[in-house]
Amino acid sequence: MISLTINQQAYQVDADPDMPLLWVLRDLIGLTGTKYGCGVAQCGACTVHINGNPVRSCLYPVSAVGNAKITTIEGLSKNGEHPVQQAWEELDVAQCGYCQSGQIMAAAALLKRNPKPTDADIDAAMSNICRCGTQVRIRRAIHSAAQKGGIKK
Questions:
Q1: Helix or strand (DSSP H, E) at 11
Q2: What's the whole-number mean pLDDT along residues 30-45?
Q3: What pTM was computed for the model?
Q4: If I label 39, which of 14, 18, 21, 99 is the partner at 20 to 30 A Cα–Cα?
């Protein structure tokens, strides 16, 4: 059995230590907000936070989590009140929406590290892929969330 703390809740899972965290979250725990995209940690659809840092969970073995705290899109805020989630909604960022939970998690981690990012900071940090081409709206939403503040370090 592997012990995990996910979204401030304790879980015990019977998983192979090499199982990717993504499959533990989705298949064993039932948190399906984190998406499978490419399976090779390139697209970012599977981004979660481990101790506040963005991690691509599709290749991250569950055994590597240890005592770290995991936050998924479901745990970012209770009712979508996180500044990034609000900005995403206000600016109608999502088109198909598939990559957006990973985008939001990457943006939230960026703003926690850098509460007033420049366009260059955003471009460097947001390596997630959006096939719909919403990168311009994503950048705008990150700036909007930064202006509203409320993201604690």
A1: strand 9-13
A2: 95
A3: 0.93
A4: 14
